[in-house]
Predict the 3D structure of the following.
Amino acid sequence: MSWNAGGCCGAAAQRNVDDVAFIKSLVAAVDPGHRHPIYVVGYSNGGRLAYKLACSAPGLFDGTAVVKADPDPGCVVSRPLTILQIAALDDAAVPYAPDKGRESPPATVQVAALRAVDGCSGSSAATPHSAMTLTTWADCSSGARVGFAVWNTGGHG
């Protein structure tokens, strides 16, 4: 299975599948009238699709979780978004910090941009959980929340 989220990956991109239209139709069929909270989670290219949805269909989801992915260039989240960004310090594909991987922006830069859109202050709460640290910003003026889970290891897998 693949998604046509841009930048890479599989038959969906080769066939120019309109995944945004598919997901919009799916959400409408699963919850007509959007009476219940709906969330999207995506890993790698699926995470890129989650960002594509945040850029092209803002408000479709009540929350987004992106695992080891960046948005495509040109996809800039411009409306507040409750989001959990998940990264690994040693990911060679989607870097945690500048100059550490192939894609851009690095996770730290993307989270800073998301915090700015959501109007989050610099105040955060960091909670270590074994090999992962979860940092959250819950005081965002938009009412949205930003979370950043960082694994010590794990690469892109």
In short: The two ends are 16 Å apart (CA to CA). The chain has a mean pLDDT of 91.
